[in-house]
Amino acid sequence: MKESIMNQEKLAKLQAQVRIGGKGSARRKKKVVHRTATADDKKLQFSLKKLGVNNISGIEEVNMFTNHGTVIHFNNPKVQASLAANTFTITGHAENKQITEMLPGILNQLGADSLTSLRRLAENLCLIILKVKNKHIQGRKIPVYASINRQCCSS
Questions:
Q1: Residue 80: inside a domain, yes or no?
Q2: Are 128 and 99 in contact (CB under 8 A)?
Q3: Which residues form the NAC-A/B domain (predicted)?
């Protein structure tokens, strides 16, 4: 009889140790520890090291053009490559910018798709200028420069 009382006390003590929250919460065998971003970065770097990536120096900026007319811009990125694994990694601070913010410095980087989106953007800008020219705000016309108007109408 004494043994069963001791076992119940021992079991109650063990159950109290297992409970993570307060009274009435579920019992867990172990506490789940969430990983930080640095742990993920270390795991990624270890995987890249297995692939045999090499650092590529001398790259000052990287621009990735999206279909939506935006640019993912990296300034002074860390670029690594493994030609055997057909893997390229670009790490660093990324900024999402509009193509218009990056002009004229990226004109030589634009491909055929980007040039068509830039042309479409210019056409939309011309349409907006023409619409604004025809509208009245509080009885006054908005002044639009004649040179811009001629350029839009001629193309």
A1: yes
A2: no
A3: 38-103
